[in-house]
Amino acid sequence: MNIFVLLKQTFDTEEKIVIQSGLIQEDGVKFIINPYDEYAIEEAIRIKEQHGGEVTVVTVGPQRAEEALRTALAMGADRAILIHQADAADEHVTASLIAASIKDRPFDLILGGNMAVDSGAGQVAIRVAELLGIPHVSTITKLSIDEGAATLERDVEGDLETVQVGLPFLATAQQGLNEPRYPSLPGIMKAKKKPVEHIEAADLVLEAGTQTAKTAVIEQYLPAKKQAGRVLSGDISAQAIELVTLLRTEAKVL
Fold it and tell me: Please, which pLDDT band fits residue 226 given cuts at 50, 70 and 90?
């Protein structure tokens, strides 16, 4: 079974965001694999261990993204593809590049994370499925494959939906699907020798219009600092009156 996993390298969720001249500063920042993509990698490795086959991780980004690919290889993926894209790409362009790199290769299953923790977007994987013309199932929390078909459970805003679909298809991983493994020392050593294919975005054959972004970032800014809370005093009725007054006169929410 050939499985592709879509991966994004993101800021470590513990990193402090610094913006200068409207741009997020990356100097000295630690990058990690997007946490939702880790669920997808782990699930792909588990399926390979059960059914055999090969796991290929794919990402679009600068050279530093190879570090994230090497981590996925250390977890147990077999090979990796890094699509070099010098300019910032929106979800439309990123999905087009990934689909162009996969479309002529044999695959049975494509997995990705439900969303990216840095942008909050959950578009790329679904767009890839649309471009490849295959079914997609989002926010899955369980996946089993038997005789060319799959049964999936997906999170539907706190409820559970069961879906059956034939291969090939694409699914995005939700928290709860599995517990991603840590790379072992032997895995890290083996990852250094596993193949990473480098592709220049300009060398991919894309359909007309897919190289132009459809969205643009107009402005980036940090949220206002959280102000200290205020403790009301007096009996309950007096506190209630003061609270309503404050909501009307200061917060202006009533």
Answer: confident
Give the closest residue to 34 by CA, choosing from 1, 57, 85, 68.
Answer: 68
Q: Share the mean pLDDT of the chain.
A: 92
Give CA angle at 224 (219, 230), nearest 5°: 165
Convert the pLDDT of each residue in 120-134 to its tens digit: 899 999 999 999 999
Q: Which residues lie closer than 8 Å to 208 by C-beta, 6 or more apart?
A: none
β-strand partners of 169:
109
pLDDT in tens, 12-52: 888 888 888 888 888 888 999 999 999 999 999 999 999 99
What radius of gyration do the chain's Cα atoms show? 22
Distance CA 143, CA 47 (A): 9
